[in-house]
Amino acid sequence: MKEQIILTLVYLRHLTTFELLSFQFGVSESTANNTFIFRVGVEAPTVATSSQWDFSKFYLL
Known about the structure:
mainly alpha, globular
């Protein structure tokens, strides 16, 4: 599970190809792609919902 999260973060940070990710993490290209789609599609919306943000701390300059 930890490797899946790291794979997703590496992709988001560097916007690399899934071919390169598959080489770096020792999985197939389709597994790297499916892992990213699962992590972003399922877990990201539940982690960062608008109700968890405190918009009162943002100021317009």
